[in-house]
Design brief:
Layout (H helix, E strand, L loop, with lengths): L1 H12 L2 H6 L4 H8 L15
Helix pairs in contact: 1-3
Length: 48
């Protein structure tokens, strides 16, 4: 779970230019970064 939280923080910190490179808008990145801590995709749950 910590890995997902870290990835979400990193996503939010990306510049608009980098987000555009990966096909995401600032609003999508913000929404993903601010998901609840327990809202983790099933394929991401497991040993860290």
């Amino acid at each position: 779970m910590r890995q997902v939280a870290r990835e979400r923080r990193e996503l939010e910190a990306l510049s608009d230019h980098l987000l555009k490179d990966v096909g995401l808008s600032r609003s999508v990145a913000y929404r993903e970064a601010n998901r609840s801590w327990f809202d983790i995709p099933g394929n991401r749950i497991g040993p860290e």
